[in-house]
Amino acid sequence: MAASGRTLDALRREIDRIDDEIHDDLMRRAAVVDEIRHSKGADAGSYLRPGREAAILRRLLARHSGNLPKASLVRIWREVMAAVAQLQGPFGVAVFAPADYPGYWDLARDHFGSATPMTRYASVDHVIRAAGEDRNTIAVLPYPHEASADPWWRFLASEDEGALRVVARLPFFPVPGRGDNISALAVARMDAEETGRDRTLFAVETANEVSRSHFNSALKTAGFDPRFVGEWTRVEKGFLHIVEIAGFVAPSDPRFERLREWQEGAITSIIPVGGYAEPLGEDEIAESIARRA
Q: Would you state the pLDDT for residue 293?
């Protein structure tokens, strides 16, 4: 007899009833998604919503209680969201995952679901090409280093319509022992959307070399809160920088104009290259004291 006074058979029947309810709700969710698909059409940009997915997970974790681990909750919902996205239109994931960096594959699979088609590439160039040629493909690439001889992010510095943009950061929910403590960016031919807690990335081209401290000072003077600055040297055309700042910043933000005014002629172009919802913080992923005990 269980502590509640119910027999094991009664408890198992209750679990069966709950399973049926969960299944019914999943089918209802899929039906609503199908309505959305018919209302928006089959454009990939209208149904792949990394920002919306991040907002859903934040909301669910904020209301979560009980003994079900938060990591399991996130994993379940990532599978659900990936599955219903496939109902609206096909998409695949191109992953930078050479033999000596297998962790990026784990990050991509955890985020985009076990049934989502994924292709492994040993070269970042091949990953970029796959996403650039197919608007239904999302690229998963290493988070940039401060200095790299040939950084992949330089391919984002384009003002062409439909250019690749950063749309998410992985992992959104870090799990110890998964992903080898690495971080990645998801890149696709779509725009990032505001979620309330975001980071924005843009590329800045300067005519001459600028020290990182000097450049950070210019960003702060313009009103930005820089969190990361990387640089790539182009011998003939100057220097290209990638900048990550706190907050969601629209291309029309007046701070960009203030940045352009820094050292007249020093900055030759500023190109927004996307953004992402900030990954969950330690307070959001921490389990309850009762569970840890």
A: 42
For residue 177, tell me if it sits in a domain.
no
Largest CA distance in the chain: 80
Pick from 291, 293, 289, 281: nearest CA to 54: 281
Kindly give, in sequence order, each residue whose CB lies less than 8 Å from that of residue 213, ignoring residues fewer than 6 positions away: none
φ and ψ at residue 88, rounded to 5 degrees: -80, -25
Domain membership of residue 243 (yes or no) is yes
The residue range of the domain holding 259 is 198-277
Residue 207 lies in a domain: yes
Report field, pTM of the whole predicted structure over 0.85: yes
Provide the domain count of the chain: 1
Q: What is the CATH number of the domain that holds 237?
A: 3.30.70.260
| Phi, psi at 137, each rounded to 5° | -110, 135
Q: Say which residues have a Cβ less than 8 Å from residue 182's Cβ, sequence separation at least 6.
A: 101, 103, 104, 107, 142, 143
Torsion sign over Cα 61, 66, 72, 77? negative
